Amino acid sequence: MLKIIGGSSHKQFTQQVCENLNIAETKTQSFKFSNDNRFVIVDEPVRGDDVFVIQTQLPPTNDHLMELLMFIRTLRDASAERITAVLPYFPYSRSDKKDQPRICITAKLITDLLQTAGADRILTMQLHSPQVQGFANIPFDHIVGAPDVASYLKSHWQLDNFVLVAGDSGAAKMIEPYADALNLPIAMMDKRRIGNDEKVKIKAVLGEVRNKKCLIIDDETLSGGTLIEDAKFLLESGGAIEVNACFIHANLGIGASDKLNNSPIKKFLTTDTIPCLHHGLRDLEIVSVAKRFAEFIKRIHENQSVRSLNDVE
Predict the structure, then answer these.
(1) Which of 128, 141, 195, 207 is most buried, by the most CB atoms less than 10 A from its CB?
(2) Is 232 considered catalytic here?
(3) What is the pLDDT of residue 278?
(4) Residue of 3, 191, 212, 213 marked active site
(5) What is the average per-residue pLDDT within 73-92?
(6) Stretch 243-262: mean pLDDT, rounded?
(7) E strands, the chain, in order
(8) Which residues pair with 121 in a beta bridge?
């Protein structure tokens, strides 16, 4: 039997997934004792069931991660047949390589922890680096954001005179499906990132943006600083007439919304992989990806192929 459990991080998303699957969320409890130790309990039998646990990265990140691991361990001890960790936004996804001495590749540690806890499968959306899939020794399904976002843009935006802009060379490949679906040209920011302070040095923009409306597409933004510098460069040096921004994960840090609200960026577009209404970002449009997560879950449960679900029409 298919069952869905939602962690504390994004209850609304879990409810939407359940509605699309036409099932009720499995009843659970999760709370902390006075000594800050967490306690979780699954209030329904799960023996022999196919259980999907939904938990996204959201502050307090480590609390939510621990809660997820505890639910997975509880389900394993309760004899669930298969356990899938559903992470709309994968925690520590930016820590994916050893680019400095004596640092932790934390994304690898997360996959190890999920497997040790008892997860049989991982499902996530738009990894900062697809190589994270290779860190796991269990099936790892990766949903891309392009189908939902491109469909929304076609229906809700007037895209005449637009050009899609990749924030860097790493994002250039990610936006190809958007360009193909929307039949729009691509430009790319040529930049260098220095140190750990999230500051970048923009060298140039590759591609024609003069007198164009730009839509910067990236997997996420944290401080907002890079997006703002990109927008200023496109307007002041590139000759663009308008800049908008799309990021799949609204992973906004402290003060990011205020900076973005005071920036020259006209509109913002994101998905609901992270609860984002509390950010207070102006001119924000949110594309729900809960329906496609539900379809992925349905096909995984029924042992059907999920490959076509990432196709962009």
Answers:
(1) 128
(2) no
(3) 62
(4) 191
(5) 98
(6) 94
(7) 2-6, 28-32, 38-42, 50-54, 82-87, 121-125, 140-143, 162-166, 186-193, 200-206, 213-220, 242-249, 268-271, 284-287
(8) 84
Going from N- to C-terminal start, the domains of the chain cover 2-144+290-310, 146-287
Report the alpha-carbon distance of residue 28 to residue 18 in Å, rounded.
15
DSSP code, position 307: G
- Equal fold, 2-144+290-310 vs 146-287: yes
Supply 288's token pair. 């729900």
Q: Which of 283, 263, 255 is nearest to 198 (CA)?
A: 255
Whether 270 and 287 have beta carbons less than 8 Å apart is answered as yes
Domain 2-144+290-310 CATH (choose: 3.30.70.2120, 3.40.50.2020, 2.160.10.10, 2.170.150.70): 3.40.50.2020
- pLDDT for the residue numbered 194: 62
Kindly state the average pLDDT of the residues 90-97: 94
Structure tokens at 165: 């802009």
CATH code, 146-287: 3.40.50.2020
**pLDDT tens digits along 192-224:** 666 555 566 788 899 999 999 999 999 998 889
Q: Is 26 in contact with 53 (CB distance < 8 Å)?
A: no
What is the reported pLDDT for 125? 98
Predicted confidence (pLDDT) at residue 157 exceeds the cutoff of 90: yes
Distance CA 87, CA 112 (A): 15
Query: What residue type is 147 in one-letter code?
Result: P
How far apart (Å, rounded) are the C-alpha atoms in residues 212 and 164? Answer: 10
pLDDT at 173: 86
